Amino acid sequence: MMKIQNISIIGLGALGVLFGNFFADKLGHDRVSFIADKDRIRRYEEQGVICNGQKCNFKFSDKDNTNQTADLLIFAVKASSLSSAISSAKNYVGNHTIILSLLNGITSEDIIGKALGTNHMLYCVAQGMDAVKLGNQLTYSHMGELCIGIPEDESEKQPMLHAVIDLFDHIDLPYVCEKDIIHRLWSKWMLNVGVNQVVMVTQGNYGTVQQEGKARETMKAAMREVIALAKKEHVSVTEEDLEYYVDMTDTLNPDGMPSMRQDGVSGKYSEVELFSGTVINKAKIYNLDVPVNRMLYQEVKRLERNY
């Protein structure tokens, strides 16, 4: 029976800090480490990392280390950093390593799997959190949950899935084991296409889309374009899924903001290619019109040209 004894995380952004801190508190700091190069490790140790006002005493591991592989390897980087993260993490992948990706979008599992081995990959969706990381400080009031699962045609990965379930049960991490993980992946992506981009272009926060008005309707319109696209791709995403995620968004701290808006505040280039960029490119295949996502894409690019 597979058992997860140690966890390696690559990425010290909002989700990396949130879940890394949770894992370290529950399992002990010696069993959880962050992979980075020597320069980043030195910078992290000098600056420190703060989570909800408390300093995190994280353990760091050099990316060039070849002495130990990870039982569970978690990618918690932005899409723009995925290629370098894969390179940094490759030494930590052993024969029995399980990999989870917390990245937004619907493509990271395929990208990581092609580079490190699809046999290591489980599907994962991080949702429901309102974490905001500015500088070295993370704040959140809703931890959210991880949705995990395997497609129907990958039943050989059941032992890996059960190992993750056993770990999550042991530490009381909020999670859902999805019967249809591809549906969940697309549904969460639909939410990101709506809320992340609209909060970005309005330069607002969750409160901007929690109240009735143009921003909220634009968010829903962008999400409905994903529903139409999903139908073309034979993935069942429905209006009920849309309402579920809009309701979830309404529970978040109105002063919080999604990661895309946090990038904007920090003057960093966003993950727009994961959202409207992907919608637009996929829609071309089916000659599907997606005017709301085209508009959002153009607006995000306009904002980023001013950085």
From TrEMBL:
Species name for this entry? Blautia liquoris
Query: Which named protein is this?
Result: 2-dehydropantoate 2-reductase
Keyword Oxidoreductase set for record: yes
Known catalytic reactions: (R)-pantoate + NADP(+) = 2-dehydropantoate + NADPH + H(+)
Q: Which GO terms describe its cellular component?
A: cytoplasm
Report the protein's function.
Catalyzes the NADPH-dependent reduction of ketopantoate into pantoic acid.
The chain positions of domain Ketopantoate reductase C-terminal read 180-304
Q: Which residues form the Ketopantoate reductase N-terminal domain?
A: 7-144
What InterPro entries would the database entry show?
A: 6-PGluconate_DH-like_C_sf, 6PGD_dom2, ApbA, Ketopantoate_reductase, KPA_reductase, KPR_N, NAD(P)-bd_dom_sf
Q: Which UniProt keyword terms apply here?
A: NADP, Oxidoreductase, Pantothenate biosynthesis
Q: In which pathway does it act?
A: Cofactor biosynthesis; (R)-pantothenate biosynthesis; (R)-pantoate from 3-methyl-2-oxobutanoate: step 2/2
Task: Spell out the Pfam families in the cross-references.
Answer: ApbA, ApbA_C
* Annotated GO MF terms: 2-dehydropantoate 2-reductase activity; NADP binding
Family per record = Belongs to the ketopantoate reductase family.
**What does the record list as GO biological process?**
pantothenate biosynthetic process
Q: What is its EC number?
A: 1.1.1.169
Whether Oxidoreductase counts among this entry's keywords is yes
